[in-house]
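Sorry to interrupt, but I need a hand with the structure work. Please put the record directly below this note.
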Amino acid sequence: MNTPLPSALFDQLARTASDQGVTAMLTALGEELTRDRRWHALFDLRLMQARRAEGLPVVGDAGTLSPEVRDAFEERSRQACLEVGWPLLDDGQVAAAWMYLRASAELDEVAARLEQVAASLEGRDDDDARRLLEELVHVALWESVNPPLGLRLLLAHNGTCNTVTAYDQAVSRLPPAKQAPAAAVLVEHLTAELIANLTHDLTRRGIDVHGVDTLPGLLAAVGDPSQPLGPHVDISHLHSVLRFARVCSDAEVLRKSLDLAFYADRLPEELRYPGDGPFTDVAKASRHFFAGCLGESVDEAAAFFREQAGIAADGTRTAPDSPRGPLEQLAVEYLIVLLSRGSRPAEALGVALVHLPRGGEQAATTGLVPPVVQIATAAEVGQPGSMQTLLDACRERGDAVTFAQALAAQPNA
């Protein structure tokens, strides 16, 4: 809490206003407030200065503003937010800083500065550190400024269970591109936890795993792949992380997710329970999905999800006279995703044009399906004529918007 300003300051302000004018007095007060790091008061002062600069009364209703005056005042207000927000953040007043920065600063810059503030928590366990941790988690995670940082802080201070719950509550509502870096944090964490626990267990059982530091290496050291293992981590955490990882497209994260799926496939039968949608058999479906996304065993992976989607080998529906259920629709979308990621965009386009709902190729259930124009653009590279196939389909469907988007996306547009 700031100490009261010295009484001499008020006398000085009065003299400055009398001798040099109000503008000089306000400037002098701003310098004093900055030196004393009274950021909230400085913000109020800057708004007063902004009013005077635009010819507005310093207090009271400003009335109806012209567009030019309104824009100029809003820009001065934004600059005032930045002027006080960044120092507040540097002082570790994260919640107060966010109040000013949320509408004035670039979120990427705020996210980076939060990382710097979080570094100051290392080795601290005092009341101020706990207050700072709470504010960092709130802004980083719950305000979606830097979800990966928020999850890392929760993992370090609250454990895996709370972090998995927080992901479901705060991160899963974000677009997939925003979810992916956060999901990667949990994939990395669970992989490290599983490696440590499995290494300890195998060593205790007399199996030499010296120098083995990967999950595939540890699983290979066990020997018989039909021999059940585990559990070495909480199964609900394992299933949740495998579910979160579906939003990821980074090869390294997909590889670790695939490793986790192989481990899940080694669990005893009594420790397995069904998942959601086409991932009812969590381990098997996850193995196919992550392998397909990596471009491995794509035919096998595609066949698995085609079966889940009710799509025959010739691309038609196996039950054309019955409406497609929501679980089949999910399987269609995951099939398109793995084909797109697994360097099979032409096949993905074919599935999308036939099996996605008409009137909107961007499916709304998983949010993972790339825009159909994006799929067609990728397919055109290896299979010329793919974009024309899309254009013809748009004509047939009467989809003028996607037709225009496809035309605009072509290199000669």
Q: What stands out?
A: The chain has a mean pLDDT of 93.
